[in-house]
Design a protein that fits this description.
8 strands, mainly beta, 4-stranded mixed beta sheet
Length: 132
């Protein structure tokens, strides 16, 4: 009979962090529809510049338009609110959004795909999804 030997549990992999983008509100504006996003950067470094190619779907699920939205800088460990006016778009016609790509994702120590790899997308707007 062999004696039992205690073993240390394997180390838990540390979280690399994520970039959270939440669609927080849609509001009718003079130009069309104002989109409000809440972002939180828990990546291990600041983002100097990030933009997302956003695909806007109508209520039937059809692509209505594509646009690149500049979220500017997102410091490490910070939450920021960004707003964008989509001219000619009626809020009631918006069925969903897709963060399709990140044409710009720059910062010290960031890989070009870090913003998409660490992306967590969601929506607080009833009936309007945000996917990444």
């Amino acid at each position: 009979m062999l004696p039992a030997v205690a073993q240390d549990a394997p180390p838990v992999a540390s979280s690399a962090g994520q970039l959270s983008v939440e669609l927080n509100d849609l509001a009718t504006s003079q130009k069309g529809c104002k989109l409000t996003f809440v972002t939180e950067n828990t990546l291990p470094q600041s983002i100097d510049k990030v933009s997302f190619e956003v695909v806007l779907f109508d209520r039937k699920g059809l692509v209505e338009r594509m646009a690149v939205l500049d979220f500017r800088d997102l410091p490490e460990g910070k939450t920021k609110v960004r707003q964008f006016d989509l001219s000619g778009t009626r809020c009631e016609d918006v069925g969903g959004l897709l963060l399709n790509d990140s044409p710009a994702c720059t910062g010290a120590g960031l890989s070009a795909d870090a913003c998409m790899k660490g992306l967590k997308a969601g929506s607080k707007v009833d009936g309007v999804s945000l996917k990444g």
